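So, can you check these tokens?
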Amino acid sequence: MIYRWLTPEEILTLANPVLQFHGWAQLNVPTSQVLGAFADDGLPVELFVLQLFPILGPLVRVDNERRDNGEISRALATKMQEFLEANEARGCMAIADSPITERLCERFEMKKLDVPVYVWKPEPAPSKVA
């Protein structure tokens, strides 16, 4: 088995067609890396994708005194949707960590995933305070 990173051309001609076949979003080459496992004859066996994918959130209220019945949140969400469409975003995810965010996601007909989502982040380095 040969393990190697795909070239940008291979991402377009090898990885993207496989993703399209499965109904998944196509990769943005500048924001993706794909590690491939290839048989000794050079045929691909498996691909593992690392991609930067837009994540919306958090939606943060700074002025807790303002009461606007959600107009500001809805306007921000609408403007963000317009930005994503204008820039041809291939999709996005939202962390719906509040009922307000969840309602906005539903309003924009985002699909709620039925699969586990995992998060990894490295442990912070020990403090070097003397």
Notes: The chain has two domains: 2-51, 55-107. Residues 55-107 form one domain. Helices lie at 8-21, 71-86, 99-107. The first helix runs from residue 8 to 21.
